[in-house]
Write a structure and sequence with these properties.
de novo design (two linked rop proteins); 4 helices; elongated
Length: 117
């Protein structure tokens, strides 16, 4: 699972990078592309950090950071879609992958979250 998610989040980051490169350049669009690029490349880094966590709490914290970045990525993908910056066909699969990664991160967080007493 770890290897698969490492590969999957890395490929996700590369797909986000390619999408950002295809957004037409303008002052406004460049700001949106930068935000999307930052958010979309972060989940993989958070996951890698979580793999080196020294405790369950640290693991959950790193994974929560990745989850927040995935939620932000989805937000920026919706903005790109609603603004018509790229064809919808370029966004559909990436939005689906974002949703799937969100579900995986939530599942892993719930699995490792310290149990309440």
């Amino acid at each position: 699972m770890d290897r698969d998610l490492k590969d999957r989040t890395r490929e996700f980051a590369l797909r986000v990078m390619r999408l950002c490169s295809s957004i037409p350049a303008s002052r406004t669009n460049d700001g949106v592309a930068r935000q999307l690029l930052r958010a979309g490349t972060s989940p993989g880094a958070h996951f890698r950090e979580a793999l080196r966590a020294r405790s369950k709490a640290e693991y959950v914290s790193k994974m929560n950071g990745g989850l927040m970045e995935l939620e932000e990525t989805l937000y920026w993908l919706e903005i790109v879609e609603e603004a018509g910056l790229v064809p919808l066909t370029k966004l559909e699969a990436l939005k689906t992958e974002t949703d799937e990664l969100i579900a995986i991160f939530i599942s892993l967080i719930n699995k490792w979250r310290p149990k309440s007493r």
